[in-house]
Design goal:
Two copies of one chain form a homodimer. Chain A is an all-alpha fold. Chain A contains ten helices and two strands, in the order αααββααααααα. In chain A, strands 1-2 form a two-stranded antiparallel ribbon. The interface between A and B is medium-sized, with 18 and 18 residues. The first copy, chain A, binds a DNA duplex (30 and 30 nucleotides) through α3.
DNA sequence: GGCGTACACTGTGTATACAGAAAGTGGTGA
DNA sequence: TCACCACTTTCTGTATACACAGTGTACGCC
């Protein structure tokens, strides 16, 4: 086929992005079988690009091969979430620390501060909007820290729990905002250890909230 | 084709493993173009499994797509090595700390201790042998720490610099042995902070050695 | 009626065919 | 000699064909 559509991307890439989006927004629930032909028909392409897309999903941890064939959308277990938050804590305390020594911290983070304040003053934002800001903020802090590798690692870890974030703990919205503000303020005040502590507290609180939610689902 | 050879693995997997081995042992130098047909002929399979193998190599960071097509074996820059060692330090100080609280530490690590002592007493081992032990030891410590995720992350980071390890700094052999012993002893003595410090020192020394080697190549 | 076998269906793994793009290659003209 | 253009080669991306494995179903046999 001709391919090379408007976005100068391959069908495999677009298939990957579309499937990833479907997983992250919950359209494809954990456990869903990723049958190549089914999604080939759905996306209007052949199995080949779908195959490539599924391979990428697996390498990002969003899908898994259980017994050897027919991959499924990953069901992230509680212990896996704990491990991810643990690893993120190890990495992100450092990025917060390093970001606090960056010269561009203020100009980079002020827009985030404004958006969060908007959340606090205005109407409750859609969970998706807040989730996006959350992801962008953590990534931007890693970028300020100056390590491309840490950016990649943190982004990869964060996406794995992204479908779990999605508004599943609404009572975390306000605390999350305040914690993010504390992190931003410590970084822009160039206080590395305060920033690291704020990040650690934030991720610990997320962890506690998830545990509490598991124990008392309603 | 019939496939399903003796090892019950797909051709794609075996192609991946063979290409990976060729990259890690230096047969395929950084910058080598990974042309699908070339390696399909070389491995005696069609382009399809080679394509899958290359995708896996890219997802592991061992290969890259530079401008959009024709992937190449990754050339790991000095700054990337520094970033990898930095990230490993963040993760592995923690695994050392946690491993020191594990009940199976002694029985797991004593064989490593014996092998390292063998290196010190007997003839100088091949660099590949030492490199393998190095990788296994760091992985085993992560396993003792009890986090599957940390195992995966550390293993992934370590393989990215593996082709760089390969005997490129022979004068690190002895110090490396002693540092490994110090880590093992601290862990088996159940001293978490000592273990973390030993790990940090080890990775810092590796870093210093690489920098020194860059500045004084001979 | 229960059980076993044959067959059809579905799904993946692999090979191959084909189109379009990029990169040589050679030849011609200034 | 150098520049430019056509042709060929080679590469990737994509679609498709086919083989094998697993699964379920229906039919026949006991």
């Amino acid at each position: 086929m001709v391919a090379m559509n408007e976005s100068t991307k391959t069908l495999g890439d677009t298939a990957f992005q579309r499937l990833k989006a479907m997983i992250l927004d919950g359209t494809l629930e954990p456990g869903t079988l990723l049958r190549e032909k089914k999604f080939a028909d759905l996306l209007g392409v052949s199995r080949t690009p779908v195959r490539e897309a599924i391979g990428l999903l697996i390498s990002e941890g969003l899908a898994r091969r259980v017994d050897g064939s027919t991959p499924v959308v990953s069901r992230v277990s509680l212990s896996e979430i704990m491990e991810i938050l643990h690893a993120r804590s190890l990495l992100e305390c450092e990025t917060a620390r390093k970001a606090a020594q960056s010269m561009q911290a203020v100009e980079t983070l002020l827009p985030f501060r404004a958006r969060i304040l908007g959340f606090l003053e205005g109407p409750r934002p859609e969970s998706r909007v807040h989730s996006d800001l959350d992801a962008q903020l953590h990534l931007e802090i890693a970028r300020l820290a100056g390590s491309k590798l840490l950016c990649e690692l943190i982004e990869g870890l964060k996406t794995r729990t992204r479908m779990f974030d999605q508004g599943s703990i609404p009572e975390r919205l306000l605390p999350g905002c305040y914690e993010h503000l504390a992190i931003i303020d410590a970084i822009t005040a160039q206080q590395p250890e305060t920033a690291a502590a704020a990040m650690k507290l934030h991720l610990t609180n997320v962890r506690e909230a998830i545990i509490a939610r598991i124990n008392h689902p309603f």
